[in-house]
Specification:
16% strand; 206 residues; 3 helices
Length: 206
């Protein structure tokens, strides 16, 4: 009799543990993704700073792609990066992210191609810098020969596909702006909406 009661108590305990685990799992998963999102934002902040230092030194932003050399903006800003790991988003799918690709590091982030070789201006004299997207979450592991390495507009499929880059972090994505700040935006937020205040060299968002 005591053995049956012990078995029943054990079964009840296990059942309760499974139920509690099922309840808490989404909470833990969300907390883990929030940490990854913050890490990604830190990466974009550092990459954005590399863009700023490059443009301040040269008077213009880096090229998105360098002719037919197989190199691009990741190669251009490498001297300003502490580590190539900054080019990887912790929530991006696994892939050949870091390593030589005809001399250029692959990345999980895109560059706004409209900024390629665009003349540098300080944020204080640039009215639209605070809402002009410079870079953000993109297709994982791409190099300069991939179309998604540098883009002029967010592809609609990125927002509609559940596995799209615009839904990488809890149904949203991180974006770095020309003034240096980084912000998470939901996939439903339209990037590139026309506005009288936006300049042609932007992926502006309000």
């Amino acid at each position: 009799m005591l053995r049956r009661e012990a078995i029943s108590s054990t079964a009840l305990f296990l059942a309760m543990a499974v139920i509690i685990g099922a309840i808490l799992m989404p909470v833990f998963s969300r907390a883990r993704e929030n940490a990854r999102r913050s890490s990604c934002q830190s990466n974009l902040k550092q990459v954005g700073l590399a863009f700023a230092m490059y443009s301040a030194d040269r008077g213009f932003f880096p090229a998105d792609r360098i002719g037919n050399t197989g190199r691009g903006w990741t190669e251009e800003i490498q001297p300003y990066l502490k580590s190539l790991q900054l080019l990887r988003c912790p929530s991006a799918p696994d892939g050949p992210i870091i390593g030589d690709y005809v001399g250029a590091a692959r990345t999980d982030y895109f560059m706004n191609s409209r900024f390629a070789r665009y003349a540098h201006r300080s944020g204080s004299s640039w009215e639209t810098a605070a809402y002009s997207v410079l870079l953000g979450d993109g297709v994982a592991g791409v190099g300069p020969t991939n179309a998604d390495y540098a883009i002029a507009a967010i592809p609609p499929a990125w927002r509609t596909s559940q596995s799209g880059p615009a839904k990488r972090h809890l149904d949203g994505a991180n974006y770095g702006f020309a003034d240096g700040h980084v912000k998470w935006l939901p996939a439903t937020k339209r990037i590139g909406t026309a506005s009288p205040r936006l300049e042609m060299y932007t992926l502006g968002t309000r």
